[in-house]
Amino acid sequence: MSSLTGILQQVEEGTPGSEDVLLQAVYQQLRRLAAVRMRGEQAAHTLQPTALVHEAWIRVLATRQGGAFRDRRSFFAAFSVTMRRVLIDVSRRRNRERHGSGVRPLSLSEDLSRQFSDNRCTSEILLVHEALERLEAVDSEAAELVNLHYFAGLPLTEAAEVLGLSRASVYRVWQFARVWLKAEIARLSN
């Protein structure tokens, strides 16, 4: 990862072509993370992992501010937050009235219970997003871990490395975040 740190420093300094080098260095890992994250999405989801990576990449480059690429942690944090925002935007778009308010056309060949659960999945993503915003106000480190693990799909051991936490600490923070989010989502859904 020391080479990744060097590439990130070049991007931060504005070295020409360094963004392309960075994309080549991390593309497969970002694609894998997006694929893991997309497995949890509904079956009729039109966004593919490759498109998710590309959309998040464009947004990260367009909206980054000084320091967003200073180290591995800030890079993956920026990318995971952006990936989460892309998924939230897609869910919100699907729930708009002009897009059918989340209702999919019925097909005689599909299981109706699956179609209704797909619509439920979209609203669950929005509930998680709102709860996560509230968690960030309470414990920003726990919210960052949720972004890295849940939305970016990093295993807890890799998230611990990115956040600079010990393995025991990251599991403790993850346990807290899960319990807190579960209670907050229950509160929001009532």
Describe the protein in words.
The structure is a single chain. The protein is mainly alpha-helical and 190 residues long. The protein has one domain. The chain is built from eight helices and no strands. Helix 7 crosses helix 8. The protein is globular, with a radius of gyration of 18 Å. Mean pLDDT is 78; it is low at 106-120.
Q: What is the overall silhouette? A: globular
Give the structural class: mainly alpha
Low-confidence stretches: 106-120
Major sheet size, sense and barrel closure: none
Radius of gyration: 18 Å
Roughly what is the average pLDDT, rounded to an integer?
78
**How far is the first residue's CA from the last residue's CA?**
45 Å
**Series of H and E elements:** HHHHHHHH
* Number of structurally distinct domains: 1
| Helical proportion, percent range | over 70%
According to DSSP, the number of beta strands is 0
Q: Total helix count?
A: 8
How much beta, percentage-wise?
under 5%
Write the layout of secondary structure elements.
Layout: H1 2-13, H2 18-38, H3 49-63, H4 72-95, H5 112-138, H6 140-151, H7 156-163, H8 167-189
Helix pairs in contact: 1-2, 2-3, 3-4, 4-5, 4-6, 5-6, 5-8, 6-7, 6-8, 7-8
What would the keywords be for this entry?
8 helices; single chain; mainly alpha; 75% helix; 190 residues
Provide a quick synopsis of the model.
The protein contains 8 helices and no strands. By secondary structure, it is mainly α.
